[in-house]
Specification:
By secondary structure, the protein is mainly alpha-helical. It has 7 helices and 2 strands. Strands 1-2 form a two-stranded antiparallel sheet. A hairpin with a 5-residue loop joins strand 1 (81-86) and strand 2. The relative contact order is 0.13.
Amino acid sequence: MNSIESAPAASSPLARRSIHDESCPSFHDALELIGRRWAGSILSAARQGASRFGDFRAMIDGISDRLLSQRLKELEAAGLIERTVTPTTPVQIRYRLSPDGRALVGALEPLARWSRYRSGRRGGTSGPAA
């Protein structure tokens, strides 16, 4: 028996964890959600104080009303954005980051810094800010 065969399988990190472990699908789902077009920009705008639909539209160049509405609904359904309706005339709808949304934006900060660093190194520009 060689040394690889004699070592217990549990001692190898690769043997214990595979890309199909229980955390992989939820991580993949999170990446799919935040990787959707404009999702990072919407989260960033909310972090910077956008709370009304018009605030988001004004802060995010190029997003359509339809897509902004769709993404806000998706982010709300995912628990990253909270939507509050005030029954006045006219009805007021406000959005804000949920605690999970704030945690996600904080977790994405190192990735945003890395992206700016890479963009600066290449001398290019990147897409919408995260």
